[in-house]
């Protein structure tokens, strides 16, 4: 793809949770296409560039998000779009007959943490950034969802619920914001290549929820028979789509959540 095809040179985009995983891939893709990027995360990533500004931000705190947006405007002068990428998944099950109050049963703390980070942050960041986009009568917000938000995922009921809520935000707010020429679109990745975010504690919880060992779970990651394209997705493939949605090449798309899963679905 020609680097000038997207024509996002010098546009300014905020990416929440841009220091690792999909967020890191999105940051690098945007920078590679000559955009300017603000990474709003708790910890700075290893990637550095003159057109990348890191602002330490807890995206669940209004004062910190407002500070991040003000810092972005002071540095770059404007904001053209936002990627709501920050999120967390704590694998938990609804009930466990053998251990009703066990460590892998959903509790209130798990619920609150996932909904605060995954859902509240999307509302909070969107509500603050969109003021800037509406003023200039142009802009894009991309919400990172998940295949599990469309199809559900065993052992990830609360996480699936948070992503389902985001899908609802995307549809409803796109209807509200269209009159201001502001677009909102969702991206829902499926099974992707491993990242450092797939920790042992995460794998242990997910394996328990699926009545298998961690070794069996890992073998399942490598099994791609349920994916028509026969492989896991690459982080860069998700990032490419996000970058496309932030560009004017997708200017007649809003309100959709696009599944990036190699053709994998419930069936």
TrEMBL record:
InterPro entries found in the cross-reference section: NAD(P)-bd_dom_sf, Sc_DH/Rdtase_CS, SDR_fam
Pfam family, one: adh_short
Transmembrane region(s): none
Alphabetically ordered keywords of this record: Oxidoreductase
Molecular function via GO: oxidoreductase activity, acting on the CH-OH group of donors, NAD or NADP as acceptor; quinone binding
GO terms under biological process: bile acid metabolic process; fatty acid biosynthetic process
Coiled coil region boundaries: none
Superkingdom of origin organism: Bacteria
Family designation: Belongs to the short-chain dehydrogenases/reductases (SDR) family.
Protein's recorded name: SDR family oxidoreductase
């Amino acid at each position: 793809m020609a680097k000038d095809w997207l024509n996002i040179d010098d546009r300014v985009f905020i990416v929440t949770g841009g220091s690792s995983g999909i967020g890191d891939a999105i940051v690098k893709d945007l920078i590679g296409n000559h955009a300017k990027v603000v990474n709003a995360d708790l910890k700075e990533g290893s990637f550095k560039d003159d057109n990348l500004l890191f602002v330490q931000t807890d995206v669940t705190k209004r004062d910190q998000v407002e500070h991040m947006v003000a810092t972005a405007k002071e540095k770059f002068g404007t904001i053209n779009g936002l990627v709501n990428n920050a999120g967390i998944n704590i694998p938990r099950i609804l009930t466990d007959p053998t251990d009703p109050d066990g460590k892998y049963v959903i509790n209130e703390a798990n619920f609150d943490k996932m909904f605060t980070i995954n859902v509240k942050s999307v509302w909070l960041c969107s509500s603050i950034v969109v003021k800037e986009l509406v003023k200039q009568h142009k802009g894009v917000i991309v919400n990172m969802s998940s295949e599990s938000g469309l199809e559900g995922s065993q052992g990830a009921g609360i996480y699936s619920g948070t992503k389902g809520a985001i899908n609802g935000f995307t549809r409803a707010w796109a209807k509200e914001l269209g009159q201001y020429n502001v677009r909102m679109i969702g991206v829902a990745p499926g099974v992707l290549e491993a990242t450092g975010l797939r920790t042992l504690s995460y794998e242990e919880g997910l394996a328990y929820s699926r009545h298998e060992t961690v070794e069996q779970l890992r073998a399942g990651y490598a099994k791609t028979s349920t994916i028509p394209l026969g492989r896991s997705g690459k982080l860069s493939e998700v990032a490419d789509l996000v970058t496309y949605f932030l560009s004017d090449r997708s200017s007649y798309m809003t309100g959709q959540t696009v599944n990036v899963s190699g053709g994998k679905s419930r069936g």
